[in-house]
Design a protein that fits this description.
mainly alpha
């Protein structure tokens, strides 16, 4: 369990930092972090980190396609968690 929590913490810190870095790069009109990288990190457990970065940095919050993809991944994760919790019963 400790390893899982450590993994979860590291993934969320990483995606938070990368989203902040991407926002900084966007302001400077420089090369950006690919959206697929951010979505992959979200998919493997970084949803809270990406959501926090989006809200704190106002990053990608006005881009509808990004929000839709973010929500789809979130819904998939919630469905998987519910399925796993019900499977254990």
């Amino acid at each position: 369990m400790k390893i899982f929590l450590l993994y979860f913490l590291i993934i969320n810190i990483l995606v938070f930092i990368l989203a902040g870095y991407d926002k900084n790069r966007a302001r400077k009109n420089k090369r950006r972090i690919p959206e697929n990288t951010l979505f992959f990190l979200q998919l493997i457990g970084g949803t809270p980190g990406l959501l926090t970065a989006m809200l704190l940095f106002k990053h990608k919050t006005s881009k509808t396609s990004f929000i839709v993809k973010f929500v789809v991944i979130l819904v998939i994760q919630v469905a998987l968690i519910i399925a796993l919790l019900n499977y254990k019963k």
